[in-house]
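Raw record, unedited: Protein KINESIN LIGHT CHAIN-RELATED 1 isoform X3
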Amino acid sequence: MRRNASISILPYFNRLNLRSLSSLISPNSISNLPLNSSPVSTPNLKPCTKNNGLFFKFTRFQANSSRNLDTLVEKRPEMSSRQRKLKEKSDLEEAFESADTVDEMVKAFKNMESAFEEKDLGLASLKIGLKLDQEGEDPEQILLYADRALKALDKDDNRNPSLPVAMTLQLIGSVNYSLKRFSDSLGYLNRANRILGQLEEKGFSAEDVRPVLHAVQLELANVKTAMGRREEALSNLRKSLEIKELMLEKDSRELGTANRDLAEAYVAILNFKDALPFCMKGLEIHKKELGNNSVEVAHDRRLLGVIYSGLEEHQKALEQNELSRKVLKNWGLNSDLLRAEIEAANMQIALGRYDEAISTLKDVVQHTDKDSEIRGVVFTSMGKVLCNQEKFTDGKRCLEIAIGIFDKREETSPAAAAEAYSEISMLYETMNDFETAISLLKRSLALLEKLPQEQHSEGSVSARLGWLLLLIGKVQEAIPYLEGAAETLQESFGSKHFGVGYIYNNLGAAYLELERPQSAAQMFAVAKDIMDVSLGPHHADSIEACHNLSKAYGAMGRLTVLLRLWNN
């Protein structure tokens, strides 16, 4: 379970004292006081000197320094009722601040409840919530404290932006994400983001705002990815990286990892071109800070190999993969090594080096368990080699073994099984076994429909399924899959993504086949508009969409003539 975004705020929260925290809650009050004044009208309170203090610390009355120094004993004046209450509160606050464990913090907090009003317990509630989150405690328990903190802190009738409120909203959003309450999470995080934006506009300290804003952007990326909104998630992930670049040293290891994470996000939507510079930057940082033989550099090179494969620069891909495998082997990272070797085999296939690919896969399969997921991947790649060699009988045998393995893993690894069925279906397409390909795509789609985070994959599979049905003449059956794919992929990648354009082009072809030229023309017009934007008006596919549109208009003209003849 991942909630690192909230956890990363806690050390920052611990560094704040009451003066800064109080001013964050209400920027127009304590922050405007002179530096030598006290927010509480008594000479007997002073700011706590502990770095992680939340409250003010009571100090004992001191004898007047101008009095006779020969006086050995001086009777202290009796405390008033008000002073005793202040001292009691100060002692309770100090006990809370000095607590190290969750149990100690909760015990101190319960003691404070009888002495403080609810509105004064907000910061302490927030700190306990963050501590519980850091230690991976029950999410519902975290929400109890976080919700209580929000009710106490979010009471400004003037709606002034407050950093502690934003921190609380971020925590609640993060916990809701872990509970898979994605819509609720998004609402809290969006509000936190708005508040932080207002604080920035008001000139609030960037040093205070940035750690929280980074956590919010990172969590928004996680939530939107989980909801299948990959393009929006990328925007938040880019923003989180930009903030991190302002917070960290230029060549920090953490910055290298953040660049690689963004590259991986681009790879997930098959945008290899934009992934490349971020992966390269992560690699350069890790090489400089950790050396060529570090695990981080090995992971960077492995990803770089995948990116080069996506860009069809297969020789470069294989070179990076080989460098990665050497380091992974030296570090004994066998699981990562096996995955990298399968990727190497696929690169060898792309280069037409089939014998090398088979040799690589035979070596890998010896290190896999009988019904393991990775064994299924090996047999899928083996089937790919054999299909490329036109050894279809042997290829189908390997693919059937792979299907059998993933059939057993549908419940435990539905996303992996869906991905395997989709990949295997493409191999059956190359063998012109369209019925099997369609059957596998339907199995894949049934799994993906239950996984909101795989919405982009669901759209892609639905689009391929519609296209195959169209190809074999099942036009009426194809249309709902194509329409669903268009809607799903627009949500994931935006309305101008080239993939959406191809779907509308296929929808136009389907309507034209059904002798509905007006509907076809509408679809072709949308497809042309998208492709002109995403690919450029001179791209071959954009030109084809234009030709298809002219065909639809031609068909509409013929239909008009036929209708006139019929009416006469």
